[in-house]
Amino acid sequence: MRSLSYSAPVASTGLTLERMPRRKRLSPPREEEALDALRTALAGGGRKLVTAQLQTIDPSPAGDLLGFDVSTRGAGVDTEQQRIYLEPAAADGPPAGVVRAMQGERGWDVWAYPNDPQLPALAAAAHPTAARVLLDRMDLYVDGEPRVESLSYRPHRRAVLRVTTRLWTIFLKVVPPAATEAIAERHTRWAAAGIDVPPVLAWSPAGLIALGALPGRALAEDLAEVAADPTFSDRLAELRLAIGRIDEPRPARRSFAARADWYRRRLGRRYPEHADELASLTSRISHLYESSQPRTEAIHGDLHLGQLFQDADGRLSVLDLDTGGTGDPADDDAAMWAHLVATALRAPHDPTQAAAEHDGDDRAAAALQLAQLLAPSRHPDAARRARAAAISAAHLLGHALTGAIPVEIALRIADRVLSDPDESPLISSYTSSHLTPKH
To answer: For 218-419, which CATH class?
Structure first.
C-alpha cells in the first residue's frame, strides 16, 4: 500500500460542570479480527505490523470503518507510519487500490490514506507535486512547489486540504465524483443570493473543487467569545433567514431522525446491554418526528459553529455546503444544539481542543451556554420544536456511535429531550455514566 505523509490539524449560566473521567478507549466489536486482517494485508506486501492504535470509527454501509495509526517494518530496518483503514468487505470485489484480507469466511477491505476508494481525487490532491498538476489543469497558476495540509477528512465522504503557495492559499475539497457538480453549483447559487461562502475557483468532475478562503476565523475557535457576544444569536438568525430564501433545486441531506433506526442497529451491536433502551428511544424519535409535516426551505443540512466564520466587522459566512438543499429548518436547529452538547462533553478531556486543562473547562462551559441560548425549544412553532427534539435525539445517537459522547450519557440526554421538547434539558453536571441536574 502506498505511503504518503499525513498532517492533521488539529458569563454565568447557572450550569455547573463536573469533570468527567477520561473515557475508555473505543473498542468496537471485531477489532481484534480487523487487526488480524491488517497483519495479513501487510504481510502480502512484505511488511510487518509493529504497532497499531485505533483512532477513528466511522459508520459505513458494510459496518464499522476503523482507522488505525500504524507503524510497519519492511524486510530491512525501515519503518513507516501510516493511517490505515479497514471495513467489512462488500459483496462485490474490492475497488482498485484496496487489498481484501480474509479472516475465515469474512473479508476485510484494507487501504491506506490517502487512497480512499470513494474519493479517487484524494491521492493526487494530498501529494504536493500531483496537487500542482491538478491546479494547473484547472487553470490555477502555482508558482513553485505548494505545501499541502490535511484540514479534515471523513473516510468515503469528503476531505479538505489547504494548498499554500507563494502567491495564494487554495482549499481543495475532495468529494465523491457524482456529488461534485451539485456542490459547486450550490456555492455559486448561494453566493449570488448574498450569502458569504467560499468562492469556487474551479472544479473537476473527478471529485475535486478548488475554493478560495473565507475572511476572518471559525467561530468554533473561541467559543467563549461567541457566548459572550449579545448579538450573535440575532446575526445567526438573520443568516439562516437569508439561506431559507434561496431557491434550492435539490433536497438537503436526509434528516438524522429518518436514520434513527440505523443508529439503533449499529449501537445495539456495539452495546447490546442498551438494546432495549435504544429500541424504545428510536420508536419515540420516529413518533415525534412524524407528528407534523415541515414547511420546507433551503437549509445548510449540517449547521454548527465549525461551519461558521466571522470577519472583523462581525459578518457571518458559512462553509461545507455538501449537505445543503431544500429541507426542514428543524434539522439545522437540532444539528447546532447537538454539536454544542457534544463539544461540551468532549472539551474537558480532549487534548486537541485545549492547551491546558482549565481551557477545556472554559470551552465546555461556553458550549453549554450556547446550547441553552440556541436550544430548539426556544422556537415559537411548537411543531418545529417537536421535530427538532426528535432530530436532536438522533444526532446524540450519532455522536455516541462515533465515540464523541459516551452512549450512557447520549441516551439520558436524548430521553430528556424527547420527554419535553418545549424545555431546554438541564445539562448541569455529568460523569461517565449519568447526568445529575442541580436544583
So the answer is: alpha beta
